[in-house]
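Posted in: Protein Modeling Q&A

I'm a second-year student putting together a small comparison for a lab meeting, and my supervisor asked me to include a predicted structure for Alanine--glyoxylate aminotransferase. I've never done this before, so apologies if this is the wrong subforum. The sequence is pasted below exactly as I got it from our records. If anyone can share the structure token output, I'd also love a short note on what stands out.
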Amino acid sequence: MIPTSFQPPVRTLMGPGPADVHPRVLSALARPTIGHLDPRFVAMMEEIKDLLRTAFRTENALTMPVSAPGSAGMETCFVNLVEPGDTVIVCVNGVFGGRMCENVTRAGGKLVRVDSPWGRAVDPNRLEDALKQHPEARIVAFVQAETSTGASSDTGQLVGLAHRYDCLTIVDAVTALGGSPLEVDGWGVDAVYAGSQKCLSCTPGLAPISLNERAVAKIKARETPVQSWFLDLNLVLGYWTSDGGNRRSYHHTAPVNALYGLHEALLMLTEEGLEKAWARHQQHHIALRDGLEALGLELVVPADERLPQLNAVSIPGGVDDASVRRLLLERYNLEIGAGLGDFAGKVWRIGLMGFSSRAENILLCISALGAILNELGQRVDTTAALAQAQQALSQ
Ligand SMILES: *Cc1c(COP(=O)(O)O)cnc(C)c1O
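Accepted answer (user: helix_wrangler)
Welcome! Here is the predicted structure, written out as tokens:
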């Protein structure tokens, strides 16, 4: 077969990411490519850093997008901050906490793993026990918004605890940024990383990060060089920092058009207003929840630990996980997420992230799920469920 231009179907993305990308972001991506050291491009990079500071609620000088996906943001924080021999406490309540553990051991750190149940927030008492048992610990790491389960942890509280025991903090905010409250300076988060394709509604492939002065001081005091050349912040900074203009030196070719997209996405977030975006995610979560519950479905996470942007739903007994997701995709062009890890086959993950968090998506999801569940022999009242969701949307 002779390949022809790839024309993707138009889907509605209500999984764990990527989320729907706004047409404004897609058209920004198609603008003419310019050189990555072009003064006009450099000026745009400066704006991206400012817009990211607004989104992260920080004044941190070291705030920038890593030219690679969220996982590379994670790796950037760990390879730079963890020196061989450092004790690092990782709080694990899902898949992404598990990946942090991998990062610690590969960077030569001594891992102390503190597990909390899947589908629950990180338990601060368990963290405090570990901090007492390991006075030598230097770093505490955890995921604010665990996309594998839909649980939201209390970043302010966990960071405060870590600081009381003289530890720096690394926080995964990949799914949190733009979707639920995150106060990098207000809570004293030392290092944070995010992703472009979740609540920022941009294309995948960029990882905003922000590190405060304490984190930068730890990196500068390293005795061993950062083992990754590409992610070594000492080198990347020479490219992203403008001290007076033309000192910017080549490190790697920035993904020029992808950064146009991020710039547009961040601009849209600022135009909407960060707090309004958080409120929108919360209101839409309530509407989806009311509709799902009226369909007889149950959310996995206890009410006060739920993320608005990722809703984990128990799959009812006798319903085949894969068939439902396949029918949603084939018939309604609607993508929802499967369960990961311990939750595989047991839960669906319904995302309401960024541009995906819209009233029409909620109604599509409720009506499509209702129709398919009925077809598969469940007796559900789709009309009543839609009315519940609509009522919450009109509040
Ligand atoms: C999606 C996600 C990541 C990884 O981001 P990629 O862009 O897929 O590399 C890391 N942490 C969390 C919590 C995520 O949701």
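A couple of things worth pointing out for your meeting: The chain has a mean pLDDT of 96. Residues 274-294 form the longest helix (21 residues).
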